[in-house]
Amino acid sequence: MQDTRALALTFEVSGLPPVKTEALSIFAAGHRQATRVRTLLQAALAAAQRTGWTPLPGPIEVDLVLRCPPGHRTADASTLLGGVCAVLQDKKRVASIGLAHLGVLVDVALYDDDRQIRRLSYQEEPAEDFSYQVRVAAVPAGV
User: Fold this and answer.
1) Which residue from 53, 74, 105, 131 has the fewest beta carbons nearer than 10 Å?
2) pLDDT average, residue stretch 94-99
3) In this structure, what CATH number is given to the domain that contains residue 39?
4) Is residue 2 situated within a structural domain?
5) Exposure of 1 by Cβ count < 10 A (0-12 exposed, 13-18 middle, 19+ buried)?
6) With left for phi above 0 and alpha for psi between -120 and 50, is residue 7 left, alpha or beta?
7) pLDDT in tens, 9-30
8) Number of domains in the chain
């Protein structure tokens, strides 16, 4: 039987992405990134439901396009990518901190684990308001 699952998912999010800059998990209740985490999870959930997406088990690539007013970026590329990737992976491995405050969003995962990432890309585009686009895609196993 042929596998018919989607191999790429792209979606838009208003506002700024979550950033990963400290040892405290961005999933902790009351974390200063909580609103950004929830917004990203809601956008990922909507995109996954719209397309029938299931988490990818193999090698992946993640692309992040940040749209912001020129000269107004709020964090560096590595902390932006780190925050987005942490949020979009399966959160079962961080369950020890308690994730009940996320409700059904705790189950939103576009892939299993960050160790699957083989390619990352980051790009900035000028815009009047902050927003971003995320793309997660399968890559050939040999990459």
Assistant:
1) 74
2) 67
3) 3.30.1330.70
4) no
5) exposed
6) alpha
7) 999 999 999 998 776 677 777 7
8) 1
